């Protein structure tokens, strides 16, 4: 299949990138990260989660973060909400898009949101209805689409089944997520093709964690299957607290370098993103895990 000429990048570092940090990151830093990302031209920034602070303490300041950010016209600010309490927080905070998050694996569903896949869908029903009634966008994220840290193998039809349910709930976009980064390109292409049988490819996003270094190849494989929305995290920040050992999402800088190098438009300023990646990594006291980011930053400094 022909590659897309334009790709939508959803920047997830403020949520997926920071949720796994052990030390609490002050609200002002989270706000500055979101503001700088919006200014760099991202069409969609995943800002925070309205989840239980007992489960994910790092996201406890979701309302404060949303109240303090400077909104860029045209940028979609997304937040995660696993239940009605989360939806109420999201609505009050003025989120543009609410993300419900399920899994293609029963074991992960239990570990992450404390219920079975079927129970999670039932819990999402009122959330989805409320999101639509409020005129907001609804996105559904499917974890463990390429493998599960607890049960191992996950079949493509398990992913398709959740995608079908999310579509019935009215999701505008559906994420196929490789939570632990185990997928390889041909398998990714197979899963993406299976999901495109039931969901319009223009509404499917690839969410790849880079634990095994496969993400860029998996993005290329996804584009070959007709996908043109990807989630990335500046400096490769991230991981899920309920997927031990899983590292961050694919680094935004690496993805932009690859896409722009292939003549694929994103509308995002790579230079600005490199500076953000170096700044936030310095703030967290570590080197950015973006190959292109570090290479370009070193060239600029020389
Ligand atoms: P539970 O313990 O079964 O539910 O958790 P509960 O209803 O009994 O609530 C427990 C406590 O949390 C109660 O407080 C509730 O009030 C409170 P207590 O009475 O004990 O003081 N509570 C809330 N507080 C604030 N906001 C809320 C909320 N809901 C309940 N919305 C629950 C079930 C779903 C709440 C919990 O399991 C949870 O919050 N899980 C979130 C897990 C999470 O955020 N994981 C990371 C995001 S998903 C991810 O990273 C994957 C993704 O990136 C894709 C990929 O890579 O795979 C998206
Ligand atoms: Mg994730």
What are the salient characteristics of this protein?
TIM Barrel, binds magnesium ion, alpha/beta, 302 residues, binds 3-hydroxy-3-methylglutaryl-coenzyme A, 8-stranded parallel barrel
Order of helices and strands: EHHEHEHEHHEHEHEHEHHH
Bound small molecules, deduplicated: 3-hydroxy-3-methylglutaryl-coenzyme A, magnesium ion
Shape: globular
Do you know the CATH topology?
TIM Barrel
Number of helices: 12
* Mean pLDDT across residues: 96
C-alpha Rg (nearest Å):
18 Å
Query: How many domains is the backbone divided into?
Result: 1
Output the CATH class name: Alpha Beta
Strand content: 5-15%
Largest sheet: 8 strands, parallel, barrel
β-strand number: 8
Q: Can you give the helix content as a percent range?
A: 40-55%
Any overview of this molecule?
This protein has a single domain, classed as Aldolase class I (TIM Barrel, Alpha-Beta Barrel). The chain has helices spanning 13-17, 27-39, 62-68, 84-92, 106-113, 117-133, 156-168, 185-196, 215-224, 252-261, 270-284, 291-301, and strands spanning 8-11, 44-49, 76-80, 97-103, 137-143, 173-178, 204-208, 229-232. The protein is α/β, with parallel strands linked by helices and 302 residues long. It is globular, with a radius of gyration of 18 Å. It is 43% helix and 15% strand. An 8-stranded parallel barrel has the order 1-2-3-4-5-6-7-8, surrounded by 8 helices. The chain binds 3-hydroxy-3-methylglutaryl-coenzyme A and magnesium ion. The site of magnesium ion has 6 residues, from loops.
